[in-house]
Design goal:
Length: 76
């Protein structure tokens, strides 16, 4: 699974990789073999709650996209 995933990401020449939380462990397993230029964003399937955003810092270089969406103000 890891080699196929790395190959797919490299062939697609990804600058950004958005994945759901189900794939977090797979991405963590291969993250050291990915280009340091690829930005990693995890999307967690949960209702967005802009009035009470949940902020999680994982410390593994993976940004919580759901938290970013909750913390981004709507356009005026």
């Amino acid at each position: 699974r890891g080699k196929a995933l790395i190959h797919s990401i490299n062939v697609a020449k990804c600058d950004v990789l958005i994945f759901s939380d189900e794939y977090e462990s797979a991405i963590q397993d291969i993250s050291s073999e990915l280009s340091s230029l690829i930005k990693l964003f995890k999307f967690t399937h949960r209702p967005l709650n802009p009035s009470n955003p949940v902020t999680k810092a994982s410390g593994d270089g993976i940004t919580d996209l759901t938290s970013l969406l909750e913390n981004t103000p709507p356009m005026p």
